[in-house]
Each structure stands twice: as structure tokens, then as C-alpha cells.
Design a protein that fits this description.
Elements (H helix, E strand, L loop, with lengths): L15 E7 L3 H11 L8 E4 L8 H4 L3 E2 L3 H11 L1 H24 L7 E9 L2 H16 L9 E3 L1 H8 L6 E9 L2 H15 L2 E4 L6 E4 L5 E5 L2 E10 L20 E8 L14 E6 L4 E7 L5 E5 L6 H9 L1 H5 L9 E9 L4 E4 L6 E5 L9 H14 L16 H5 L5
Parallel strand pairs: 1-2, 1-10, 2-7, 4-12, 10-17
Antiparallel strand pairs: 3-6, 4-6, 5-6, 8-9, 9-10, 11-14, 11-15, 12-13, 13-14, 16-17
Helix pairs in contact: 1-7, 1-10, 3-4
The structure holds flavin-adenine dinucleotide.
Length: about 400
């Protein structure tokens, strides 16, 4: 997808836009959407992307939006229950905000509100899960109203997961992220002042004395009033201060199907799943597609693609009641990289903004984070005037801390 060429011809004056967004994944395209949505004086926006539209983590992920219990627990421990409440409400509102925009913009992206079952097949994991749930009830985290703790004696039957020892349910959204982003960008191009240039890698950004920034690419340069880095794991290429903060991690995902026309098809899974095993922290997630196939991600205990294939090849047969003789097999396997969120104005770089690094769970965070960044740019307001959780604010202090978070 390429718009008209905005780049300079030799000796022409360097072209210009109000806002330059680097990266055409969900972060970049959602920021553009919120900058333009319901805006009577829309800014001129250029998106530059190294490869084709949505080639990074967004185009590779399973499309599962839900509250990440482990993150809420981590934030409760590190920043207290108020911060955890802010994060959990933010994640919950994301589910509904993305569903609404998919409907409003008629995005053909298989968006479906669903019930998410976080199940544990190991007793220590189930005990930990129960402890986390009880802590959250004790801390009066008000999102808890949307969560069911399933009594252990019923978990196997309700979830269909063999030998399940513990389970929680919550509202979730499943969708096809690549389609969501490409359809949304197409809508924006149809109706507004946006120009997307693919195969155009930003090689450097310089800030000029007149307050403008100049981005250089192999196709020429462009001047911009404001710059948004939506560059995920690649951020430190331009902002070296983030090198130890946004650290890419490898994630693997698979598409599993069963033989067509089988006399004994396995039961359709009506929910999305998290599946936790031993050792503690080992977890996969599954999103059944309407056609009966399953997207399964995780395999974080394996770092190479072939061991991950072996893991996914038997996951349905081993774990789901009625799938033993299904012949389920992996027909695609892919990988990608993704770290923790840093959002807001880039410290010491006026008019430069960032939203990047989501610790492999960007889907329940990005859309409304992008809304917050767009608000900062549109209304010229500080981070605190947005609804982005405070723990995501990027600051000098945060950057100087000697930890990767
Ligand atoms: C295999 C896999 C499965 C996942 N599953 C889930 C899931 O089920 N649920 C969930 O919540 N999260 C999941 N995630 C994480 C989620 O996909 C990410 O958090 C999210 O997509 C990040 O979106 P983004 O737009 O910030 O980054 P990206 O989609 O990576 O986009 C960044 C873009 O910036 C471009 N770029 C970088 N540098 C430059 C440059 N110099 N010039 C031009 N362009 C540049 C890149 O090419 C890229 O397209 C998964 C990730 C992977 C890899």
C-alpha cells in the first residue's frame, strides 16, 4: 500500500507533514486513527514503514485481548493496588473499544467478544492462580466483578481441558490483528489526509533549531512538526536510551487444523484459553477460529522453531477432551519479537512521542494507549491528562533505572 510520493526530488524543497509516524503496526495505525477521528481540523500525517503494512509483531500475533492476570499481580506487588486497578480497567476498556471501532468502521477482522478461560493443569499453578485471585478480591480490585473463579471440581468439565486443576474466566475479544490494521489504514486513506509509505525505512531523525524534525530514508527526507515512534522492538535503533528498556523477546505462534471431512471431528472450542503447566510460568494461549482451526501461541520454554512445532503438534490431543484422535496438526508456524511499555513524550526530545514495548501482550494495551498519545499531540496536554496507566509513562528516571522494565 503506497500513497503518492511525498519524498523530495533532487533540489526540491524537503516535503513536510504535521505528524510523522514511524511504524505501521497496531501502535502506528491506531495513533493515526485517533489523531484523525472526529477531528474537524485533521493534521497531515505520514506513516513510514520499513516493510509492507503490518509486517511486525502485530501481523504475527494470535489476536487475543484479555486482562493479563500475571501483569496485574506484578503491578500490585511493584506499584500497589491503585496502579493495578488502573491497569486492569484500562485493559478491560480496550476490549470494548476495539470491538466498537471494528463495528463502527466495518473492519472485516473476525472480531468476536468471547469468554476467556485461564486454566492450570498443574496443582502448583492452580494453587498460585487461586492465591492471585484471592489477593485481588482482598485488594478490592473492582475488575474482579468480571472474573469467575471456577471451583476445582468443575474446571475439567467447564473448560474441556483434561486434568485441569484450576480455572478463571473473564470477558475477552478475539480478532485477526493483521486484518484489523490493514482495514483501518485503508479506511483512513480513503477519507483523510494520511499518506502511508511502505518499504521506506527511517535511517535517522534529527531535530532542527527551528523546532522541526527531519527524518531521512533511502527514498529521501521529510520534515515534520511532531514525530511518533511506534517502532516496538526496533526502537533503540533511533532512541539508544531505550536499548536496555525495550528488549525484544522471541515469541512463537502456530495455526492448527484437523483433517477435512473427518468422520470424527473434534468438538468446537467455544472459548479462548490460557493453559498453564509446570514449571511455574510456562503457558500457552489458544484462540479457536470460526472455521474450527486453532491459533496457538506460547511455547516460551522452547527457543527454537522446530521444538516449538513439536510442542504445538500434540497440544490439542494432550490437553483437550474429545481431541485425542482428531489428527490435529500444525500447518503454519511463525515467530516474531516483542518487551514492557514505554509511552508518552520522549525525555529530552521535545515533540517526539513514543508508544512501544508491550511484553508480549500489546493487544489489550495499544489501542487506548494510542488514543492517549493522540490526545497529547492533538490537545498539547501532558501524559497525566490521558487515561494511559501511570506506570507506562516513560521518564528520565525510568530510563536510568538499572532494570529491564
Ligand atoms: C508471534 C507473536 C504472538 C503474539 N500474540 C499476542 C497475543 O495473542 N495477544 C497479545 O496481546 N499480544 C501478542 N503479541 C504481542 C503483540 O503482537 C505486540 O505487542 C503488538 O503487535 C505490538 O504492536 P506495535 O505496533 O507496537 O509493533 P509492531 O507490530 O512490531 O510494529 C512496529 C513496526 O515498526 C516498523 N519499524 C521499526 N523501525 C522502523 C524504521 N526505522 N522505519 C520504518 N519502520 C520501522 C516495523 O517494521 C514494524 O512494522 C504477540 C507477538 C508475537 C511476535
Amino acid at each position: 500500500m503506497e500513497g503518492h510520493n511525498v519524498f523530495s526530488v533532487p533540489n526540491a524543497t524537503t516535503p513536510y507533514c504535521d505528524i510523522l509516524i514511524i511504524g505501521a503496526g497496531l501502535s502506528g495505525v491506531a495513533t493515526a486513527y485517533h489523531l484523525l477521528d472526529d477531528n474537524p481540523s485533521p493534521p497531515s500525517i505520514v506513516i513510514l514503514e520499513t516493510r509492507q503494512v503490518c509486517p511486525g509483531a502485530t501481523g504475527r500475533n494470535g489476536g487475543h485481548l484479555m486482562r493479563v492476570h500475571a501483569h496485574i499481580e506484578k503491578v500490585t506487588k511493584e506499584a500497589g493496588p491503585e496502579a493495578a486497578k488502573e491497569l486492569s480497567q484500562f485493559q478491560a476498556s480496550q476490549v470494548h473499544a476495539m470491538k466498537r471501532v471494528a463495528e463502527k468502521e466495518k473492519l472485516d477482522c473476525d472480531a468476536l467478544l468471547t469468554w476467556y478461560l485461564e486454566t492450570s493443569v498443574s496443582q502448583p499453578q492452580a494453587d498460585e492462580q487461586r492465591k492471585v485471585y484471592e489477593n485481588q478480591v482482598e485488594n478490592n480490585l473492582d475488575f474482579i466483578g468480571d472474573i469467575n473463579y471456577i471451583q476445582p471440581k468443575y474446571v475439567e468439565e467447564i473448560s474441556g481441558v483434561k486434568g485441569a486443576k484450576g480455572g478463571l474466566t473473564a470477558t475477552a475479544l478475539q480478532l485477526w490483528p493483521y486484518k484489523f490494521v490493514t482495514c483501518l489504514l485503508a479506511r483512513l486513506i480513503e477519507r483523510s489526509s494520511i499518506n502511508a509509505q511502505t518499504h521506506t525505512r527511517v535511517t535517522s531523525i534529527s531535530q532542527c533549531k527551528d523546532g522541526f524534525s527531519i527524518a531521512s530514508t533511502p527514498r529521501g527526507s521529510i520534515r515534520a512538526k511532531k514525530v511518533v515512534y511506534a517502532t516496538n522492538g526496533y526502537t533503540s535503533g533511533h532512541l539508544p536510551e531505550f536499548a536496555k528498556k525495550i528488549v525484544p523477546v522471541k515469541v512463537t505462534c502456530s495455526h492448527i487444523s484437523t483433517p477435512k471431512g473427518s468422520a470424527n471431528p473434534p468438538p468446537h472450542l467455544n472459548h479462548t484459553y490460557g493453559l498453564s503447566y509446570e514449571p511455574l510460568g510456562t503457558r500457552d494461549y489458544l484462540i479457536p477460529r470460526p472455521d474450527g482451526t486453532v491459533i496457538c501461541g506460547g511455547a516460551r520454554n522452547t527457543t527454537l522453531i522446530e521444538p516449538a512445532r513439536a510442542h504445538f503438534e500434540t497440544i490439542m490431543q494432550k490437553n483437550f477432551i474429545g481431541w485425542e484422535d482428531s489428527g490435529a496438526h500444525v500447518d503454519y508456524l511463525w515467530t516474531g519479537t516483542d518487551g514492557w511499555p514505554h509511552c508518552g513524550q520522549v525525555p529530552s526530545r521535545e515533540k517526539h512521542y513514543i508508544l512501544a514495548g508491550y511484553n508480549v501482550a500489546g493487544m489489550p494495551l495499544i489501542f487506548l494507549t494510542a488514543k492517549g498519545i493522540a490526545k497529547m499531540i492533538r490537545d498539547d496536554v501532558p501524559f497525566e491528562s490521558t487515561s494511559i496507566p501511570k506506570i507506562f509513562k516513560t521518564t528520565e528516571e525510568h530510563l536510568k533505572k538499572d532494570v529491564t522494565s
